[in-house]
Design goal:
Elements: H1 5-8, H2 16-34, H3 43-51, H4 54-68, H5 76-91, H6 98-121, H7 127-145, H8 155-162, E1 164-165, E2 168-169, H9 170-188, H10 190-200, H11 202-207, H12 212-238, H13 245-249, H14 251-261, H15 273-293, H16 297-323
Antiparallel strand pairs: 1-2
Length: about 325
């Protein structure tokens, strides 16, 4: 008679997304009470916390897909900058140019994702090298043509970041709709099942008849599209775009960090979207808590790095426990 994993390894563990969510809420409430920042606990404070999640969360959704299939994407930061700059440059405050600008940004993102996927799947270039190289090329071309804020977005487009339904911003609703769609895709479609299969055992997936190259390419195209959407959101929020937005936001490394914190294995094959969202919430809570406590920005980076290292160590330990 076989025993369930929880029977072999003790009591059932709290799911990673739920654990991170509970811990994040406890940290946020504790920081607000400790600093008497009671306004952070009302509707406006909570909404502000959720808004902190939108940019990083959108990028991280795409990063989750590529990591699940055993790849990685370091070009997302540069693509965020491209999205913000091209959107504001093409619109130049003209409402009639909103749709062409959005389509152009998404087209550029899709092409970059396709190139990344082809380099990795067809030419077998290391994902780290391929996406780092494409990101550097994109950033170099962008910085050589734009050195400051470019153009502007019309007031109608600002509604992407500042519009709301009641107290809840459209951007927050959009983030959770995207997360729900990505989660549904992973759980209910053949492509989603193939992502897990390729990440878990690429050779085995190939032997089972899965076209692994198409899966990797598709995941990278989606990752780039999510980065392009983030650039559009930031252009709306900042009312313009600049070539350093993605770089200064460290969206490439932080998106990987929250994916790992959320329980997705860097080797691929295990994890999910809601763990990533919980990791994004944790980072947003750390930012908000440090602001309430008046702690400088540099210690925040140290704490984030320590959390990533601890998370990887814990997951590696748990993985060994299940293998033993």
């Amino acid at each position: 008679m076989s025993l369930a994993p929880e029977a072999l390894h003790g009591r059932r563990r709290l799911p990673v997304p739920l654990f991170l969510f509970v811990g994040s809420v406890a940290l946020y409430v504790g920081a607000a009470l400790a600093t008497a920042s009671f306004n952070q606990l009302d509707v406006g404070g909570v909404v502000g916390l959720l808004q902190r999640m939108v940019a990083l969360g959108t990028v991280a959704l795409g990063q989750t897909l590529v990591i699940l299939c055993g790849s990685i994407d370091l070009s997302v930061g540069a693509l965020v900058s491209v999205g913000a700059v091209m959107a504001s440059f093409v619109m130049r405050g003209d409402t009639s140019m909103m749709l062409p600008a959005v389509l152009l940004v998404l087209a550029i993102a899709a092409v970059v994702g396709l190139v990344n996927g082809l380099l990795i799947a067809k030419l077998e270039v290391s994902p780290l090298i391929a996406t780092l190289g494409s990101g550097l090329i994109i950033q170099g071309v962008l910085s050589s043509n734009f050195n400051n804020f470019a153009g502007s977005v019309p007031p109608a487009f600002e509604a992407v970041a500042y519009g709301a339904i009641g107290p809840l911003p459209w951007s927050v609703i959009g983030l959770f709709l995207l997360a729900g769609a990505a989660s549904w895709m992973l759980a209910n479609t053949r492509f989603g099942a193939h992502i897990y299969a390729v990440g878990g055992n690429s050779a085995g997936a190939r032997m089972a008849g899965i076209r692994t190259e198409r899966v990797v390419i598709g995941a990278h195209v989606l990752s780039s599209l999510f980065a392009g959407l983030t650039g559009l959101y930031l252009a709306s929020r900042l009312r313009s775009g600049a070539p350093w937005i993605g770089r200064d936001g460290v969206y490439d490394l932080e998106s990987i960090a929250v994916v790992v914190i959320g329980g997705t294995l860097l080797a691929g094959g295990r994890g999910g979207v809601w763990g990533t969202i919980a990791g994004v919430l944790l980072f947003a809570v750390i930012d908000a808590s440090f602001n309430m406590l008046g702690v400088p920005a540099f210690p925040k980076q140290v704490i984030r790095g320590a959390i990533v290292i601890l998370a990887v160590a814990v997951y590696a330990s748990r993985q060994k426990g299940h293998v033993a």
